[in-house]
Amino acid sequence: MTKSEFKAALTQFPCKIGNKRYNMGKMKEYVKKAQIQEADIIIFPEMSLTGYTMRDLTYELAEEIPGKSTAMIEELAEEYNLHIIFGMPERSQKGEAILYNTAVLIGPNGYIGKYRKMHLPTHSVFEEKRYFRLGYHIPIFQTEIGPIGMMICYDVFFPEVSRALRLQGAKLIVCISASPAVRKKFFETLTMARAIENTCYLVYVNLVGIENGLQFWGGSRLIGPSGHLIARLKYDEEDFTIGDFDYKDLKPVEAFVPTLRDLRPELYQSLKSLSENL
User: Structural domain boundaries of the chain?
Assistant: First the structure.
């Protein structure tokens, strides 16, 4: 019988900007802790390798994927028999100035895949389009802990991303984030909505701490398919916890709230046309 029950370790910690050695040391510390508590996967926030507010340091800190840092995380995943998701700035193999805000998935057997952030906030305190190129692909990954999809922070404001992941078969959607405190209510509401409308598990892992005057609120969480909170981390503090999820629990929720059955695909073409003519 195929295993359906798994444990996810949610981890939020203050990163040191540009200090990969320190940040990776913190990740290793929590990977060890996750293994002791028999987790199957551990998730770290957006840009957890480098810190979020890198500004012009982004060009210096970005790496190819796979590359040096992902190889080090691969060693951790193999040693502790865990799947690991974390965020980092990626440099394209095709150009030194082509950078992406990327989520990376690594398993006990090595590198699995990556997701490049599709929606780049460039307003108020955000300036991502100044540094990063838009992502164009929404892959899912078949793993020993089920089909996983990833997205990053502002992507959660656009239901198309999570819907595309779910329609490809993702049962667990992981959203890594660097959300400042002023956006807390938005993310609490939207992450719950994404889980409910797609009848799936959703993990949201957010940065915590202060970087260059920008305060990140933490509040990471594992949300079930009916919108219930399975696990939640503290606000504004470094924190860690384990959340249990069971894919068998998706079946009764899908029957009770059959959103995928009731989709109207003919609407998508009109949405495309309307959005092209804003």
Answer: 5-275
